[in-house]
Amino acid sequence: MPIGPTTYFGKERVFVDREACIQAFRENIQNSEIKEYNVLFYYGIAGIGKSKLQEELQKILKEEYPEIFWASIDLDVKTYRDIGTFLITLRNKIQEEHSAKFHLFNAVHAIYWKKLHPEIPLQKQNYPLIEKGDILDKIIGVLENSSKLSLAWELLNSASDSFRKWCHLHHIDVSKIESLEPNKIEELLPGIFAADFFEHFGENSKFYIFIDTYEALWDGLRDKGSFHEKDKWIRDNLIPNMLGVSWVICGREKLLWFPECDSDWDMYLEQHSVDELPESYCTKFLEDCGIENKDIRDLIIKASEGVPYYLNLSVDTFEKINKKRQPVSKYFGKTQPEIFNIFVKYLDHNEIRALEVLSAPNFWDRDLFEILMKKFDPGYPTGAFSKLIKFSFIKTDSNEKYSIHQLMRKSLQEHQDSTDRKSTHQFLLAYYSDKIEELDIKAITPEHEIALTEAFYHAKESLEAEKLCEWFISVSDSFNRAAFWQLITPMYEEMLQILKTKLGNEHPDVATTLNNLAGLYYHMGAYDKALPLYQRALEIYKEVPESEHPDVANSLNNLAELYRRMGAYDKALPLYQRALGIRENILGSQHLDVANSLNNFAVLYESMGEYDKALPLYQRALGIRENVLGFQHPSVATTLDNLAVLYYRMGAYDKALPLYQRALEIYEKVLGSDHPDVATTLNNLAELYHHTGAYEKSLPLFQRALEIVEKTLGPEHPDVATILNNLAGLHESMGEYNKALPLYQRALDTREKVLDPQHPSVATTLNNLAGLYRQMGEYEKALPLSQRALEIIEKKLEPKHPNTVTIKNNYNFLLSEMSEGDEEK
């Protein structure tokens, strides 16, 4: 097989892996009659042997199914990629093989072409698609002798029974066709083609049409229009008009017709990957690539482990050597690095330098490629981009992002001078950091998420440990405030390990990272993960010389807040007291950290039912925050929301409502409408409306709050359980017990899973679920739930706590109702 100089990863590199694919084709033949539309799609990376597979499938039809007709078109030919020339080419192939006539299609296409090119004579040299035929000759005569295309349509209508039948079948008014623009006439061509096709072959004949190189439809058009517009004419026009015809299509990427285009394709589209590479197929592949020496083949196969990229890398090496000398076994594959080393030996210096620079980013597009080439000037021309991406070790995705095969990339990085490598990472760190500077936390996009991820990667490669910690805490703050906790948590986890390794387990930066990571776990409801991190951070902070250091106070406050959320109020109280004392002592009574402690302390007292202690703390915290931060800060909104909750619990609904509304307005303005803090206030406001009987106002707020927290925090977060519990209570109040029951059950499951089974919130949901069963008259289900709720609440809260009183009263009321029922019986 001849090896051309630029065939790095093309069809010439064929390997065969088709047993499963062929079996799928045979089954498709057997089942084709039961489908109105039948599309069999094979996908796989370039050069994997899809074209060869089509040849094998066509051979099967020839030898085993001679009664099945077929034709094939390869979209690698650029002119075949629009509907008109595609159909002309398909017509020619079918006429050549099966002597079919397409009189109607020929005539309509001629009229279409003339309307598209009115100034050009309809002659053989201008319109090479002309074919002899009575109707077509007359149509061409009219088109050439009259400027009125309407006469051609009238002639076609009077002379062709097929055309009249087609128009009638499709409810088309011939008089209106003449006014159609060329693009609209073009849309009619598949239907016209189908009319001629079925007139020749009949409605019940089996016919397969093969289309290869399907990805070529996007060639040069990926950044223009929507993705699915490129093949719409095949998907929505051509195939639907060819009822009963089967299609075998090959392309690089799996089709997304279902579910992105039309759910019906789930019934008609069958897809198979072409990817397995057993040793026998590797051998065949290498033989087809011209490697005849068995020793070389065996070395390559062993080193490649059957991975296509490894095979292609080896063939690249073989081809480079073969241009200069006879390849021998010693140049190939004892280990994978040896394959790389012998490969780069025959690349020119500028190619190697360019690839070294490009090995730094995880991926790159053309713009970044040009930026890097201009910045580091490896001597590789930016205009040679298209040549570079033809190498088989360059991978591309559907968004035209390119990357180097990981084996090659790692070897390039090791080969590159360490100073140059660090310089490249530093440049890319600045490049991606610029994209996330001064972020509006309400407008963070997936591009910003990618930029942070990439910046973090390059920061790890270019910054010392302490600088890495300082940089990441700063740059991730916007994402933290925007509740992108799931995004930044893995980065914090990785940074923690780096800091421990580089700085030691007792370093203050390790404590800071432990504290911040614990805060992320806390926000995500992973309290069991947060607790040991907060405890370890506090241990490290206690080692500082000053016992009343702000970091110690922060750590105490955070640990106390976690204990409060876990329902361990007795553990939280002394920690809050100590944190507040330190902060007031060293920062002064009007400091924001003092306000933070006051707010959290008030929440604890509220949770404990000591509302008279909570109220002045909230009011003092609000005063400090408004004075220091202004009236539109999220921290102000937090205290407003908390104070409103307190008034709600105290029954002062008229005081709670305006505070909720003001908090919600601030949150939506500053944080955006989909932030978890917005959901918290929506839930609280909905609960207020619920208890004031405004059910129609309450329901949409609960629903919106639930949607936000499930989206941002996940379905098993404690905040999700809270909203589910409250929404269930609303449905219960509305008498919709069938809607309330599954919500209570889901809330209970979530709280028992993510909180301590003895948590007061678990008792609350148990009590509510028991109340629902009581309302439904199912006392035998209600009683054990109510008993368990009472056991938990008496263990966790004081006897005078409102929740304790409520649950105990409900339990006694249930017993009373059950006793009365027994007496009646």
Plain-language structure description:
- This protein has 825 residues and is mostly helical.
- The protein has 6 domains: 18-78 and 207-275, 3-Layer(aba) Sandwich (Rossmann fold); 101-205, no CATH class; 291-344; 352-446, Arc Repressor Mutant, subunit A; 481-677, Tetratricopeptide repeat domain (Serine Threonine Protein Phosphatase 5, Tetratricopeptide repeat, Alpha Horseshoe); 709-824, Serine Threonine Protein Phosphatase 5, Tetratricopeptide repeat (Alpha Horseshoe).
- The chain is built from 40 helices and 7 strands.
- The protein is globular and about 100 Å long.
- Residues 1-12 have low confidence and may be disordered.
Brief summary of the model shown:
The chain is mostly helical.
Considering the chains and any ligands shown, give keywords for the structure.
825 residues; mainly alpha; Rossmann fold; 6 domains; 5-stranded parallel β-sheet; two-stranded antiparallel sheet; 40 helices; 66% helix; 4% strand; disordered N terminus
Uncertain parts: 1-12
**Mean pLDDT across residues:** 86
CATH topology of the largest domain: Serine Threonine Protein Phosphatase 5, Tetratricopeptide repeat
CATH architecture of the largest domain: Alpha Horseshoe
What number of structural domains do the residues give? 6
What is the top-level CATH class of the largest domain?
Mainly Alpha
| Helix percentage range | 55-70%
CATH superfamily (homologous) name of the largest domain: Tetratricopeptide repeat domain
Rounded to an integer in angstroms, the radius of gyration calculated over CA atoms is 36 Å
Shape: globular
* Oligomeric state, counting identical vs distinct chains: single chain
| Ends distance | 96 Å
Physical arrangement of strands within the biggest beta sheet: 2-3-4-1-5
Number of strands: 7
Pfam families: TPR_1, TPR_10, TPR_12
TPR repeats: 511-544, 553-586, 595-628, 637-670, 679-712, 721-754, 763-796
Subcellular location: Cytoplasm, Cytoskeleton
GO molecular function, one term: kinesin binding
